[in-house]
Amino acid sequence: MTNPTPWWRDAVIYQIYPRSWADGNGDGVGDLPGITARLPYLAELGVDAVWLSPFYVSPQADAGYDVADYRDIDPVFGSLSDADALIARAHQLGLRVIVDLVPNHTSDEHAWFQAALAAGPGSLERDRYIFRDGDGADGALPPNDWSSVFGGGAWTRIREADGRPGQWYLHLFDVKQPDLNWENPQVRSEFEDILRFWLDRGVDGFRVDVAHGLVKAKGLPDWSGPMNMLDLPDPTQRPPMWDQDGVHEIYRSWRAVLDGYNPRDAEGYDSARDRVMCAEAWVDPPERLARYVRPDEFHQAFNFDYLNAPWQADSLRATIAASLAADDAVGAPTTWVLSNHDVVRHASRLGLPVGTARPNGIGADDTQPDQELGARRARAASTIMLALPGGAYIYQGEELGLPEHTALPDEVRQDPTFARTAGAELGRDGCRIPMTWEKDSPAYGFNDTGRTWLPQPTEFADLAVDQQVGVAASSLELYRRLLTERRDRGIGGGSLTWADVDPDVLSFTIRGTTGEQTTMLANLSAASVTIPPGHEVLVDSDPDGDGTQVAPDTAVWLRRTS
Ligand code: GLC
């Protein structure tokens, strides 16, 4: 039967960070068999799909975002047959599987990069990457002034086969992540092949890493501005390494590959079988991001403006309205997200003073977030997010209310940013701590040996899954309730009308695909707000909510009684 609403338009997708979700073999790093065994938890949570961060062969210089072989699994995570088993089990449970595609760069240990080093300047092998001669009389200066997103310069000089200092190669990220040259036709056809490889294995789609970075401005002009586009004072400025118009043609060709697995014009087309792509594109303003989700490109693109919006009703309102308007103009849904493996978890972020710029990690010497306030606001933030029309991503552990680890010792940090900035940026390890399943098991149930690649803080114990299941006031039960109501009331596919309340109160009504209306009301003011007459509470982010008042920093879903 043909499903009228393609599944991805309102899907809730759960991000699994394979290193840290479930460890089947007890070596301290999560793996695919561990994940497969735990999948029923996600079916019970009520999500539609999982996205797995990279599990490919990799030296793990950037936790797997440095891929040495796109068609095989790193032994630390398992094997291809483990991947097949995971996909099959997920499908059996009604969960779709999205895998991570990393096209901006490979690992320096990828066969292509090794061949490029061996082949010498001007070779076809070098042309698959971005090699240039250096500046200055003896080529000792980098070809331009770009910096790496992880700190330090974006160019590294190699030694040629004869041992002499040679050309430089571009790496927008770590030195072990050389950027590919997307002007090269071999690069293009290779990635179309990689897409087919995984589609043939049964995956339902791809999350595309650094989707705004593949094409660089001609001539690689200097750029001294910020490396994060979302930090640009003037969002109409476009750095030469990001959001170049040439990327779109690549995504059109990929969309054609995906659509080939479920042709729209064929008899028996079923949108339930759509294969999808989601862009990780840190792009502003929303109209530029919307270009990635035009009908023949990506299906989804993470809305990072929303993730970055301060805890203020007017900012949230403006961000939501601008995103919906920009995406509506191209007929695309908006894809909401609050946390992922790259940012301080929202349960901690929202416990920092309002207006604090999002830090890259929090350490023991930094001002600590107010955990109680952060947890309260995080529950409200998720209650807002899951009421919004469009898709949503949940990052593993956020459903438990897990905070950031804010006291990791420096010696365990693994994010390349930490070393590349000599500790000035702590990096992302604090949001990547192994998951917590059972309070009284080794490693809180992450495995049965107690080994973990990053230490778990003791406050994770009381947040373990087994402490929350069936506890009405828990964060986990709040998420389950939100996901159930969201589905039953057709909220994700619905349309939004703003409600006019106090400026510090964020409120809108969704007319769901079932015809039912749900009002979301979030109180970002300092005083309680009375629930409007003729409404009753369906879901309350506040475990102490009394059904008549919405306390500060809490949110409710309401239905009409009259
Ligand atoms: C993306 C990933 C991040 C990775 C970077 C380089 O931003 O989400 O984890 O470090 O790309 O691949």
From TrEMBL:
Record domain Glycosyl hydrolase family 13 catalytic: where: 15-432
InterPro entries documented for this protein: DUF3459 (IPR022567), GH (IPR017853), GH13_cat_dom (IPR006047), O16G_dom_2 (IPR045857)
Domain of life: Bacteria
Gene3D superfamilies documented for this protein: Glycosidases (3.20.20.80), Oligo-1,6-glucosidase, Domain 2 (3.90.400.10)
The protein, known as: Alpha-glucosidase
Pfam families: Alpha-amylase, DUF3459
UniProt similarity note: Belongs to the glycosyl hydrolase 13 family.
GO molecular function, one term: alpha-amylase activity
GO BP field: oligosaccharide catabolic process
Upper classification of the organism: Bacteria, Bacillati, Actinomycetota, Actinomycetes, Micrococcales
Record keywords, A-Z: Glycoprotein
